[in-house]
Amino acid sequence: MKEFINWMADPIRSFPVVTLLYYLMMRYYRIVGTKKFAYISLAVLLPVVVWFCTDPNFVAIILWPDNIPINIIIVLIAWLTWYSLYRCAQNDERLEQGLTPIEATPENREKVWTWPNLVYVELMCMIGTTIFLVVWAIIFKAPLEEPANPTWAPNPAKAPWYFLGLQEMLVYFDPWMAGVVLPGLIVVGLLAVPYIDTNPKGNGYFTIAERKMAMWFFMFGWLVLWIYLIIVGTFLRGPNWTFYGPFEFWDFHKVVAEYNVNLSEFVWVKWLNMPMPHNMIVREFLGIILTAVYVVVLPPLSATTKWGKKLIGDMGKVRYYIFIFLLLGMTSLPIKMVLRWLFSLKYIIALPELELSL
Amino acid sequence: MSGKGFADKVRETQVWKSIFRHGPPNNARNRAAVIAGNVFLHLHPIKLKKSGVQLGYTWCMGGLTFFIFLALTVTGLLLMFYYRPTAEYAYNDIIALKEHVPLGIMREIHRWGAHAMVITVWLHMFRVFMTGSYKPPREFNWGVGVILLVLTLLLSFTGYLLPWDQLAIWAITVGSNMAKATPFLGHGGPGAALAQIGDFVMVSDKNDVRFQLLAGRFVGEPALLRFYILHCVFIPLVVGTLIAVHFWRVRKDGGISAPL
Questions:
Q1: How is A118-173 classified by DSSP, letter by letter?
Q2: Which pLDDT score, from 0 to 100, does residue B204 have?
Q3: What is the pTM of this model?
């Protein structure tokens, strides 16, 4: 059983599973967002977690002091995601019946005094947080390792936990993409959200039915591409950034055979049976064409589809193309992941001469 | 003895009245006065929609982020008394702090608080998205929030180096190596090789973005000083300013979001 879980946890299998679970969760949020569902999943998950915690390797990795925040955030996100779906399901049910969302009932629109109502809530939250932090500080000492030694690198050398999603992307992309371009696109994309999402509905209340597209895209990026990758980078990556299952001992000698092949090698050596050309543009022609199609041809092509026409009608051309460009940036990650797993593809364009590999 | 308790007598003293210029906040006039008359509380409106005080709607994550930011400022100031940002002293100062301050948990609160702040910022943003609160008229404030998110991560990242242990320098090495790959601006990034005039290399490891970040070609003492100043002075000043803008705009954009 443990072997099976170790085997399943490998991103090659767990990523599709997580994506599927995400799809089911969003598709059937009316069922997920019920108290009954929450209690049943708690009843199922708690014993599983307890059973997980009987394994020394699993406990070692989750109790590593700097990993504690990730445990906390996993629990909080699971709970708050369920809670949001619960609120959305409630509101969407009401909207269907022609009622207002709960936040818009006359009772909730009523104004109340800040003192004592809000001040009291804030005080309680501050006290709760203070107690939480003090207890956390007493139980777990802040880590302090050996003095800094520039000549000896620990293995694995990991960035702080909130950047491990980006470090995990390094498996699939070169640093200029994983460390600079994609994080830049995330920030630009977040800044652009309110200007791209022109849907006036769902302003100030929980709802999925009234803003399906925004929810589906954002939640995928947030839960699957960001949080899931952080979990993989933190708990499932050991020495040499090799994959280790949750119950697996971090054995430094674990050897993983990797035969990753560039697209140009597929083209020239495998398919055409020729030596690699010297001119790098000729060598990489297929990758360059494919990338150009992805970035330059796909957006205008998508604008001619029914979906694209409707969106352009709603938001205008400028917004549409910015949206599509950001979307292509986001989907480049899962595309690269799947290509790696299916074909052991390393680079679509391999131009080490220019440090420009995709 | 009259029917007045001790608390009532205190309230009637000149000292009390000089501090709190209104009576007890148990009527409408005084409840307004207590919020409007207090420099800290006046960040709030005097009245607000009921949904704005419900934890189920607000999650209080934005408020807690600010609270943790203040807690980190206080604990950080206390830590500064014990810490010198040089390769010679930094690590030993942390050891000394552990050994000379019995039952001290300031470093723990500072470190776990930093993690907690990242968590609360993310969850605040999650809630704001789920309730569509970035929609007009709050688009600009969402943008301010995104910048604050980036700065929060940078604050945590710069602080990571200061203990000057193995965890610190190698985490920062991994992180700052990314800057090396910045297109055109990092010496290992795409386009850098093109920026060359004859033999003169315009983007090298001696002047690229990573060099600017680390004040050197690797994580050494100049990087420690640079990160220390970024962490303790520069970024907190920017964050403090943007928090003021953020809160001001929450009020000006109509308070905590609610259905239009």
A1: IHHHHHHHHHHHHHHHHHHHHHSPPP--SBP-TT---SS----GGGHHHHHHTTTS
A2: 82
A3: 0.94
Chain B closest-CA separation from residue A259 CA (Å)? 24
The total number of structural domains in chain A stands at 2
CB contact under 8 A, B174 and A167: yes
Query: A-B interface: how many C-beta pairs under 8 angstroms?
Result: 281
Determine which of B29, B51, B196 to mutate to test the interface with A (most A C-beta atoms within 10 Å).
B51
> B107-121, B202-216, B233-247: which range is least confident on average?
B202-216
Regarding whether A348 and A271 lie in a shared domain, the answer is yes
Domains by residue range for chain B, with CATH: 1-47 (no CATH), 48-252 (1.20.810.10)
The DSSP code sequence of B216-240 is SSSSSHHHHHHHHHIIIIIHHHHHH
Q: Quick check: A100 and B259 CB within 8 A?
A: yes
Domain that holds residue A61: 2-101+205-241
Asked whether the beta carbons of residue B257 and residue A203 sit closer than 8 angstroms, the reply is yes
Minimal CA separation from B18 to chain A, in Å? 21
Residues 113-142 of B with CB under 8 A from A: 113, 115-116, 118-119, 122-123, 126-127, 129-136, 138-139, 142
Residue A131: pLDDT over 90: yes
pLDDT in tens, B72-98: 999 999 999 999 999 999 999 999 998
**Weakest-pLDDT range from A67-76, A270-279, B119-128, B146-155:** A270-279
State the Cα–Cα distance between residues A342 and A337, nearest whole angstrom.
Answer: 9
**Same-domain check for residues A341 and A210:** no
Q: For residue A219, name the pLDDT band (cuts at 50, 70, 90).
A: very high
